[in-house]
Amino acid sequence: MPSSSSPKGLTIPQTQYDARVVEPESGAALTPEQLARRLAETDVVIVGEYHGHHGSHLLQSRLQMALFRQQPRQILSMEQFNLDRQPELDRYLKGETGETEMIEDAGAWDNYRASYRPVVEFARQQNLPVIAANAPADVVRCVGRKGPSYLDQVSRSIRQALPSDPFTDTPAYREKFAGAIGASHQANSTMNERMENTYKAQLLRDNAMAARILEARAAFPGYQVLHLTGTFHSEGGLGTVALLKQRAPALSVAVISPVFWPATNSKPPLEQNRSKGDFLYFIQPLPDEFKDPEREREAMTARFQRSARKTCD
């Protein structure tokens, strides 16, 4: 892809590692250090990501260090660990277990070493808290299958760790979710039961992450939270962000959202993406997973079958 300049000094991302941060209204380019200075007094900084995109993960690491230089009282909060595995994560942070033990015991994502090791290691070296923020994966899966009543079956310890209002939502988020799964606009308020349960599972994640962030702030007063999450959970100030603001209106929250720079366009698509975040970062599109529709169907079927083998009894 040839190099091309854009207004205010913004340039096309040249590799999958590149992330070009911009201020949405002006289109002005920012370095991670300049962004950190803008965010120095912000209570919660949320960086949305496309899971596994190297540009997202490198920016997160650079911003983590730049924010730390501005405000060394920092908490790293992560969607990528489930709240019921916090003790296993803490044991690693204390040096009581090795990395492979932590990956196995804490249920780290498959791409942990390639994507999240740098931020966890920075926090560990600086003795910073790392918060396992997501709802337990098996509980989320079973709520998606059986509905909200599944929470009546979980252990008391898990239920107490989840927020008391685990399915709070907002109309705009429901509409976004319905659009993402292909429901018509008219069907937004009347999704079928299966989709309704899937939506409740999504809300369980968002509510859990919002609650965990606030718990961390309460446990470490005055600390700045850096929260890493899939962009759907934060984009446009929806999902976890909206729930945070519902629970703590005085909290200052900044959202940094990824945008793919079109491969055929030398200009950043600012106009249609301004509302996605307080700041945007442009990255190269990810490669297509499949070109062969039949192989894609086979892969999706295999993934579904693996999930279906896990029971919710």
How would the blueprint of this fold be written?
Layout: E1 20-22, E2 29-30, H1 32-38, E3 44-49, H2 54-70, E4 74-82, H3 86-93, H4 99-105, H5 112-125, E5 130-134, H6 137-146, H7 156-161, H8 171-180, H9 193-219, E6 224-230, H10 240-247, E7 253-260, E8 279-283, H11 293-308
Helix pairs in contact: 1-2, 2-5, 3-4, 6-9, 9-10
The helix count comes to 11
> In one word, what is the shape?
globular
Largest sheet: 8 strands, mixed
Helix content: 40-55%
Explain this structure:
This protein is an alpha/beta fold and 313 residues long. The chain has one domain (7-135, 201-308): Rossmann fold. The protein is built from 11 helices and 8 strands. It has helices at 32-38, 54-70, 86-93, 99-105, 112-125, 137-146, 156-161, 171-180, 193-219, 240-247, 293-308, and strands at residues 20-22, 29-30, 44-49, 74-82, 130-134, 224-230, 253-260, 279-283. It has an 8-stranded mixed sheet with strand order 2-1-8-7-3-6-4-5, sandwiched between helices. Strand 1 and strand 2 (29-30) form a beta hairpin.
